[in-house]
Amino acid sequence: MRDLSSCTPAEVRQMIRNNEVKSPTAGMCHGYAQGNLVILPKALAYDFLLFTQRNPKPCPVLEVSDVGIKTLKIAKDSDIATDIPKYRVYKKGILEGEYDHLNSMWRTDFVSFILGCSFTFESALMNEGIEVRHIEQNCNVPMYVTDIMCEPAGIFSGPTVVSMRPMTPDKVIQAIRITSRYPGVHGAPIHIGDPGLIGIRDIHNPDFGDPVEIKANEIPVFWACGVTPQAVAMKVKPEIMITHAPGHMFITDIENHKLAIV
Amino acid sequence: MRDLSSCTPAEVRQMIRNNEVKSPTAGMCHGYAQGNLVILPKALAYDFLLFTQRNPKPCPVLEVSDVGIKTLKIAKDSDIATDIPKYRVYKKGILEGEYDHLNSMWRTDFVSFILGCSFTFESALMNEGIEVRHIEQNCNVPMYVTDIMCEPAGIFSGPTVVSMRPMTPDKVIQAIRITSRYPGVHGAPIHIGDPGLIGIRDIHNPDFGDPVEIKANEIPVFWACGVTPQAVAMKVKPEIMITHAPGHMFITDIENHKLAIV
Hints:
Two copies of one chain form a homodimer.
Chain A: H1 9-17, E1 32-41, H2 42-54, E2 61-64, E3 87-91, E4 94-99, E5 110-116, H3 119-127, H4 133-136, E6 143-149, E7 159-167, H5 169-179, E8 191-192, E9 219-224, H6 228-236, E10 240-244, E11 250-255
Antiparallel strand pairs in A: 1-5, 1-10, 1-11, 2-5, 3-4, 3-10, 6-7, 7-9, 8-9
């Protein structure tokens, strides 16, 4: 198998489109930003766009497509209906199925939202020597539904989902400094320390992803997470909402460092 | 007359509501952010919200109201139909009139957009010892229509309007550094130097506001400007669009320093 870490985003998108790549995209196209996907009919797009505006930490928008258009500006010659390895289709809040592509179910009234993804800030952390536990453990990041409610917008409301990375206090300070520079990919953490303060009952039993080890000298650090829209969809039950499957992201042409501010 | 610079935003909004204050708001409520206003019917709100998402430098959103709601969260007990000293009503792209309040013309389908305003970054510049020419000259900032086109969104398209502040090269460097920290109020400049490179034919003859002196050792510095939506409205001619009159801003409860990132 080719080393996908050194391929260009266009190359890997083509392989995904041809069903030659079906796996999670972590580690592919080193240096390029990956994104979360939310597809909604135009009738729901205003409420969701307003939801992202009011909740930029869980929902940092990288691009919103024009209505019915499959090619995104942040990914040359892309096709959002085929260029993600695995899609999830939610109907009235129920996960109806997972699909390789959306060709047969594409609608001319669909609007695609690409939201920034923590892979970008994890690269920045690792570049500065901060180990990321779930990457060391080769598993998914642990994610938790909190009692921090999003600002509602139209039909959309619900709890903030967070991802958690444990680290020693000196690394916590560095990680806050580094991720503050990346508001387009969730930015600074929204909580550190006691999980109970944000409504997490059992840190060892995440709602999404896998548990990771937290060592005795470590503090859990919580970032707002792009899975939030999926938790919201399950709650508010829109007619239809399509997302990426966790870990199966949209690979953009945006270089990670371009998402850093200042 | 009371010194409005030391009044609270709530106090001054009340005075404006009572028609006791009708003047431009520059200098009022020291330390608090003021905002540009755009009101549109809900039918046009998606296109405009998407326009702001695609053009965050001229259109940095501080808040979008719920449909028909006059009170904004960033201004406790506010009434957006009365709390600005002077409104402009555009119908099909024509400035139809200026009004003290909107009570008689308020519609239940109106959505209010508050966009960040350069007063915030001017405070930050002055706090670091950078003189702002139009404030020294006690006039309006000069503004120019450029040939830098905004990213279109739905019906909205048009040129970026910029504001200009001349300064010496050492101050230009500082000003870029300082304003980069304020993406919510237009952020870093979008051009420095030769006005012709962005389609400005006569720097001494601005399209909005007043001309200011540019000294021999100074470089003109151009920031994206919140008047852009008004230039866009004149071009795309929406059924109705209501804005503040230039310089007559909405005074929010947001402290300026809260808009700084990192």
